[in-house]
């Protein structure tokens, strides 16, 4: 059980307050029992609530940690927006009998909601063995991206091309003995921001499109695939 400050957990304070008021008014407990009892309940409640929260990941390097925390906040916000989109799509596409399209949108949203956890796992590797500073690792990521460039078309090919160029710059930094972690996190930040833009387009289209139209359904599918493509880009950077 983790120790926690009850003042940071309103529900725990509320539980203690209910015990204090109820015990004093209805149970007629003396103050010498009611007050310490309320404090114990609030403290225990805060400890339980804190134990249910994941530990916050912190990196030893302050500059890299600052960049990481910003990227993680972006990922959490994007995940929340993806959850909203998922709920909207479930209602709208189910009502319009577009079940196959709903599956495409839901898959992209589910992948997005996994992003904060994946970034936390990346941070632990960054701190433990500087995995992203390895030229070999960066070159492996570059090969993946270049293979995707060759096997993709249109928007997807453009996305993979941008990632490949970013990885080339990071390899150059690492070969010069520079810390490439911030550059790699900056790449993640850019991908998340661009992914957010596509999510917004997808949400707008979902709200305004005539879903009885095959053209509108195809446009939604293309946006969903583009959105999913950003998640695949992210996967290359964090594995």
Written overview of the protein:
This protein has two domains: about 5-50, no CATH class; about 60-239, no CATH class. The protein is about 80% helix and about 0% strand. It is mainly alpha-helical and about 240 residues long. The model has no long low-confidence stretch (mean pLDDT about 80). The longest helix has about 35 residues, at about 60-95.
How is this fold's topology laid out?
Elements: H1 10-25, H2 31-51, H3 62-95, H4 99-113, H5 115-129, H6 135-151, H7 154-175, H8 181-208, H9 214-238
Helix pairs in contact: 1-2, 3-4, 3-5, 3-8, 4-9, 6-7, 7-9, 8-9
Proportion of β residues? under 5%
Number of helices: 9
C-alpha end-to-end distance: 32 Å
**How many domains, as an integer?**
2
Low-confidence stretches: none
Number of E-state strands: 0
Q: SSE order, as H and E?
A: HHHHHHHHH
Largest sheet: none
State the helical fraction: over 70%
Shape label? flat
Q: What Rg is obtained from the alpha carbons, in whole angstroms?
A: 24 Å
| Broad structural category | mainly alpha
Mean pLDDT: 79
Describe what is shown at a glance.
The chain is an all-alpha fold and about 240 residues long.
Q: What labels would you give this structure?
A:
mainly alpha, 0% strand, flat, 9 helices, 239 residues
